[in-house]
Design brief:
Layout lengths: L2 H26 L2 E10 H12 L3 E3 L6 E10 H11 L2 E10 L2 H12 L37 E10 H12 L2 E4 L6 E10 H11 L3 E2 L2 E6 L31 H14 L3 H11 L3 H12 L2 H12 L2 H17 L2 H18 L2
Parallel strand pairs: 2-9, 4-6
Antiparallel strand pairs: 1-3, 4-8, 4-9, 5-7
Helix pairs in contact: 7-9
């Protein structure tokens, strides 16, 4: 081998190592660099997974064409753009489980490929796993995980209460498979969420992991203000099923409010906390539930005109203009009248 050949081989090896190190560093920071035009959503997701080494699930019926040009942008910001362009929401799940099979089952449920009835995640929704943040509740925008850290003190909390507190403060969804029992004691300050979850998993004798998910319909499946009371209504629907009752969307909401009204004050508070409803909205919702039906419309209009809600609406509109193309907005406008017609009682 000549000296020139050895130099060339060494240079190629050095470049390869440098590129690998750069990729590792970028993956660790969850940074995305991508330039695509009208690319299918799932193909975009695969490219992002390759760059970040993260697992990102997409709900079964979610389809979209993505136009994106980003350079070293955090994954959560990119997911926000994808969610806006695909009319979806994203969330970060931290499941606690006993076996890899259980972890895979949860991902299948989130994607809408498997029913909860034959899994170890039957209580998945009952634990408020779809709350404020990430995939969002009915009442909140997707805020994502702000800085990836958690500050929280818990002492001898039940699994349900402890995981709900962690989920609310982190804006992620920390969920445990059925049968998980024990007490949670935690004292963390500006601790990486992944490390905090690891501490909890150790106390509960569970394995842990995480994955992201894009969920269609603007919010994840099975979000409800109050529990379904009739046997027929309590039948489980697969993830992503957006079918409505015969009364339509408005009638369904009014029915939920009336059922919510029948709960005690303590149960109302617990329900709102389980759903992750922000504190600033809880009082308004409780007032709304106590009002006669004929007064609710005026009250809702007053709430919509409040500075808080107007600020959220303006932020949402700005996000839509920033994160979508003119073609995507035009297509969305064409679909809106049809959706409004479907939602009428």
């Amino acid at each position: 081998m000549t000296k020139k050949t050895r130099i060339i081989i060494s240079a190629i090896a050095l470049v390869t190592v440098v590129l690998f190190v750069i990729r590792v560093q970028q993956a660790r920071r969850d940074l995305v660099t991508l330039d695509v035009v009208n690319m299918p959503l799932r193909k975009v997701i695969r490219k992002i997974e390759w760059q970040t080494w993260e697992s990102i699930d997409v709900q079964k019926n979610l389809e979209a064409s993505i136009t994106l040009n980003v350079k070293r942008v955090p994954l959560t910001e990119v997911l926000e753009i994808l969610a806006e362009q695909s009319e979806a929401r994203w969330t970060l799940f931290y499941p606690l489980y006993t076996a890899k099979k259980s972890y895979n089952e949860l991902r299948q449920i989130v994607r809408g490929e498997k029913s909860q009835s034959d899994s170890v995640w039957k209580s998945f929704n009952a634990r408020g796993s779809f709350g404020f943040g990430g995939a969002g509740s009915e009442f909140a925008e997707n805020l994502g995980v702000s800085d990836g850290t958690l500050s929280l003190t818990l002492k001898d909390q039940t699994v349900e209460s402890g995981l709900r507190s962690i989920s609310r403060l982190s804006n992620a969804k920390v969920v445990a498979e059925d049968g998980t029992s024990g007490k949670i004691t935690l004292n963390v300050v500006q601790t990486p969420l992944k490390k905090a979850v690891a501490l909890v998993a150790k106390q509960l004798h569970r394995s842990h992991s995480h994955f992201y998910a894009l969920l269609g319909g603007g919010r994840p499946p099975e979000v409800a203000l109050v529990p379904r009371t009739s046997e027929a209504n309590s039948e489980e629907r697969p993830a992503g099923d957006r079918s409505r009752g015969s009364e339509g969307g408005r009638g369904n909401i009014m029915q939920r409010l009336e059922e919510f009204q029948q709960l005690s004050a303590a149960d109302q508070q617990k329900k709102l906390n389980d759903l992750g409803v922000p504190a600033e909205f809880q009082s308004s919702l409780q007032q709304l539930a106590q009002m006669p039906a004929e007064q609710r419309g005026d009250f809702i209009q007053q709430q919509i005109q409040s500075p808080q809600i107007q600020g959220r609406i303006q932020d949402r509109m700005l996000k839509s203009l920033t994160f979508t193309t003119p073609e995507q907005r035009a297509a969305r406008d064409r679909r809106t009248p049809q959706r409004m017609g479907q939602n009428r009682p």
